[in-house]
Amino acid sequence: MATAHMLEYSKSSKATCHGPPPCKGSAIDLGVLRYGQVTFGPYGETVEWRHWGCVTAEILTKLASTQLERVPGFRNLRSEDQNKIRIAVGLRRVDPVDVPESAKRIVAGLNNGASSSTSAAPAPTQKKRKATFDAQPGPSQPRATQGPSASQLVEDDEIEEIVPEEESRDELYVMLKTNIVGVQYYKGLVGPGEEVRLVREPTNKYDKNAIKVENIGRTQVGHIPRQIAVKLSPLMDRNQVTVEGVMHEGNCRGHSLLFSIIL
Q1: Which of 125, 157, 169, 194 is the most buried (most CB within 10 A)?
Q2: Which segments constitute the PARP-type domain (predicted)?
């Protein structure tokens, strides 16, 4: 399946990072710069998001073979973030400053554990030798069994802590590009890149599966097409999906608008 790229600021904190452990599965906060790997399959598009700081050298190499200005969302980024991305693509590595704290926590813990265990290693050895010299078991004394040392227990705990949690099932976003219809009948205005709300309208006398589209001011812009609403409305009624919409063009011209539905 073909893949593509997306760059944007996170529109919510619902998406989780698909980067390598330990950050994998952690939340991507609202407004954070994120990278999306888009996969085109037989059922539409899926996007796997990750913090920009979790982008790998392999992904940067793929970005280097594309024109960044043509990557969706790149032109909407602030100039300083555009420059940051260009530098990272050129060097094939992201700036360490951009690595999120959720990707650093286990590495820092291992480093601290290694240094403390190294500095404390001579003391148990000396104590063990002294105990062996002072308390040699006699003929009538049973030989004591040596239990696990404190440092071994600490190391075992650290190994257990770095096992990544199982990834939740709702981390993938499914994107579907479609039109907003009936915009000539409503007063709501939207521009390219703006978010819109998709609201069920079961009382619509023309279509019980109707889903209306509203701008951020809750003014109706139009409806999504019926063939999509008939499949999406049952999922929305059962609260099985969270639906978001992002505009690809404004309604200053024409009678239909292109936008993306994100599940």
Answers
A1: 194
A2: 5-86
Query: Which CATH number describes the domain made up of 3-103?
Result: 3.30.1740.10
Burial (Cβ within 10 Å: 0-12, 13-18, ≥19) of residue 251: buried
Structure tokens at 190: 């939207």
Q: Domain residues of the chain, as ranges?
A: 3-103, 175-262
- Rounded to the nearest 10°, the torsion over CA 51, 52, 53, 55 is 100
**Smallest Cα–Cα separation from 151: which of 180, 194, 113?**
113
Predicted TM-score (pTM) of this structure: 0.43
pLDDT above 90: residue 130: no
**Which are the contacts of 122, defined by CB distance < 8 A and separation ≥ 6?**
none
Cα dihedral sign, 49-53-56-61: positive
According to the model, what pLDDT value does residue 20 have? 93
Cα gap 149→92, rounded to integer Å: 44
Whole-number average pLDDT of the chain: 76
